[in-house]
Amino acid sequence: MEATRHALARSGGVDPRHIGCVYVGSESHPYAVKPSGTVVAEAIGAVPAVHIADLEFACKAGTEGMYLAHSLVKAGEIAYGLGIGADTSQGAPGDALEYSAAAGAAAFLFGADDDKMLAEVVDTFSWTTDTPDFWRREYMHYPRHGGRFTGEQAYFRHTKNSAKGMMDKAGLKPADFAHAVFHQPNGKFPMRVGLELGFTKQQLQTGWLSPWLGNTYSGASPIGLTAILDIAKPGDLVLLTSFGSGAGSDSFVFRVTDRLPTVQGSAPTTRPRSATWPPMQAARWPRP
Fold it and tell me: Is 21 marked active-site?
């Protein structure tokens, strides 16, 4: 809800009644049977003429919601669509997942109004296989994972192929981008995959939040994108590449418009809050 309110604050006065879909991507929905999206839509006043769905694809459920909302707007089916990535990360006590477990959300409002657009979606691409590196069965409290198998065979394979496919499709190369953000289950993976793809540390640093914030699962790469949009300049190209175990990766290319700087201060920015909460964590980790 907090992320959605921030999105609406930067929207240029979009009437929630004109939002045609609300998609919440998460692997920690409060209910096993009962949608989260209806709560969000009701709270912002988007009901009842709205399509709602809860989505799950491990850590890329947030970009799933963004992809669907954008696609419906692009097809002319709706005026505006809301895509949200949100999670309260789960990890068994003592498991490697526990060390970076965090909570957070990012919300994006898609629409076709040129006078309200902050960043144009230039293109999208997805790369998906049946690679079972991470799972949680019904009635189990915590997910399980395949250890090192989650790295090379899952995260790196899918992330690299998705990002390469996106750049090939759009006719772009790493040097064309001002910023890039990848799924960040820890501090090492997103920086490594970005450098291996040909991006510089400077291009990766702004959206790289996991060493300070932790892994917010479905919110991880979308929250990184919000940190980038907080400081991006008109004309900047931004690459977003998510990853979800099981496994798949969504990629987006965004082009920042002239209007973005006028709304960057309309809601709290991401990096100051990610880097200073909790205070002890901020003291332990060096700032980029």
Answer: no
pLDDT tens digit sequence for 22-66:
999 999 999 989 999 999 999 999 999 999 999 999 999 999 999
Domain boundary among 83, 111, 139: 111
Q: Identify the active-site residue in 145, 158, 179, 183.
A: 183
**Tell me, what CATH number does 51's domain have?**
3.40.47.10
Does residue 223 have a pLDDT over 90?
Answer: yes
Nearest-5° Cα angle at 270, 264 to 271: 115
Tell me: do 141 and 273 sit in the same domain: yes
Do 106 and 236 have their domain in common?
no
CB atoms inside a 10 Å sphere around CB 71? 15
- Both 82 and 152 in one domain: the answer is no
Phi, psi angle pair for 282, to nearest 5°: -65, -35
Strands 248-256 and 134-135, sheet pairing:
unpaired
Where a domain ends, among 66, 86, 111?
A: 111
pLDDT digits (tens, 9 = 90+) for 82-141: 999 999 998 889 888 888 999 999 999 999 999 999 999 999 999 999 999 888 888 888
Q: Which of 6, 21, 29, 59 is catalytic?
A: 59
Tell me whether residue 70 is one of the annotated catalytic residues. Answer: no
What SS3 class is residue 12? coil
User: Which one from 27, 64, 158, 179 is the annotated catalytic residue?
Assistant: 27
Residue-range definition of the domain harbouring residue 60: 2-111
pLDDT at 284 over 80: no
pLDDT of 199 over the 90 cut: yes
